[in-house]
């Protein structure tokens, strides 16, 4: 699996979506009810066109079938309308705490043939975080 961005049609790409309730609380991923106030989350904010800051990262060397090994993961904080929301995801390349990163779309986060699910049963694409130089 490659760390390179995919070249598919941007309209077919999923967003990296944070969710907001009517009271303005943001979460990633979304929840049926806001963990802060219990209201239904009704709005989404796409984080894929924003930059964030690495809060922490780790490297997994015991990965599930089909996931690259080692697999670096980072928690990234995004500023949205004077609020912060954190997202976790795979990393393309290397990062350090405090690095500015962007979300980069990839067609395959894991090998669909290596898992126990049918390859057509779900999407295998998504985003990795890449350091912005």
UniProtKB/TrEMBL annotation:
SUPFAM superfamilies: Nucleic acid-binding proteins. It comes from the Archaea. This is Nucleic acid-binding protein. It comes from Halapricum salinum.
């Amino acid at each position: 699996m490659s760390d390179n961005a995919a070249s598919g049609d941007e309209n077919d790409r999923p967003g990296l979506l944070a969710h907001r309730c009517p009271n303005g609380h943001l979460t990633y991923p979304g929840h049926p009810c806001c963990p802060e106030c219990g209201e239904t989350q009704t709005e989404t904010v796409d984080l894929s066109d924003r930059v964030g800051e690495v809060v922490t990262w780790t490297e997994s060397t015991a990965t599930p079938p089909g996931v690259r090994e080692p697999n670096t993961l980072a928690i990234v904080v995004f500023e949205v309308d004077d609020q912060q929301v954190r997202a976790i995801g795979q990393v393309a390349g290397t990062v350090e705490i405090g690095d500015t990163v962007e979300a980069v779309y990839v067609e395959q986060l894991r090998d669909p043939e290596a898992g126990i699910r049918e390859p057509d049963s779900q999407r295998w694409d998504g985003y990795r975080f890449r350091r912005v130089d």
